[in-house]
Amino acid sequence: MKTAARFALLLVVLGTSACGGGDDDGLAAPDAGTLPDAAGTLPDAAGRADAGDGWTRIITGEWMLGAGGENTSDLHFTTLDRDFYISAIRPINPIGTHHTVLALDNGVNANIVYASGVNTNALTFPPGVALRLPAGQSLILQLHLFNTSDAAIAGTSGVEVLEMDPADVEHEADLFLPGPVDFNIPPMQEYTHGGTCTSTIDQTVFAIFPHMHQLGTHLKTTLTVGGVERVLHDEPYAFDHQAFIPFEPITLTPGDTVRTECTWNNPTSGAVGWGESSTTEMCFSILYRYTEAALPGIEICNE
Hints:
By secondary structure, the chain is an all-beta fold. It has strands at about 1-5, 50, 55-65, 70-80, 85-90, 95-105, 110-115, 125, 130-135, 140-145, 155-165, 170-180, 185, 190-200, 205-210, 215-225, 230-235, 245-250, 255-265, 270-275, 285-290, 300. The strands form four sheets. Strands 1, 2, 3, 5, 8, 9, 11, 12, 15, 18, 21 and 22 form a twelve-stranded mixed sheet that branches.
């Protein structure tokens, strides 16, 4: 099966529509820490929070989480008052930040434009490639928070960016998520499962973000381009070090494929399936790409 859609957020299948919704488990999440003014508008460049090294904190969210607590759908919002063209992006992810999702909402649908995990590094786009955040759209920050300690913790999480001169933009980037969603990891054993995505358009990929959860031990991504297999990524997976890995751009044409294979070690007495919680699993080769086609939104692809 192959699907392409915009989401109210990929990882918010819970249908939450307000900050602090979802399963709190001791969470008190004030709608604070974002940068908009009282009307919800992002200030101009002079009013935004600068990290002091050229990076701008475009959106943040403050949170508190009780001992052992988890929250999968803490949302923060702002409205963009101008176009942003981003040449590099990085998360603000203190301990307790399991993943961060950044999405744009045009009033009808939301489209994910960035995701990060534990200890994710900064990503710089190739020359001439930018992530565009259009004026007038709502910028949504989703935080998945998970506290494994026996004491309450608090922090400020979010996203920082470097901006690019619009005159230098040749291509606009978006996300492509090949990977299976139909697996069920048996108890008390190691298990490997994969899925294949077939490209239907010309698209150029240039960075990968391998993504699994706590049971993940290995992820392999193989491209078949023009009938020739090419292993893009084949490495052990570490939940506490989820990195964006840039590579020389590779163009996929219709009929080329991306295969994602994941290995998990499940020491528990129960089966584990797909889900957004830290106690469930995922298996995605999250790829940044650019295309010449007008796409309806982020593409999740599995067969």
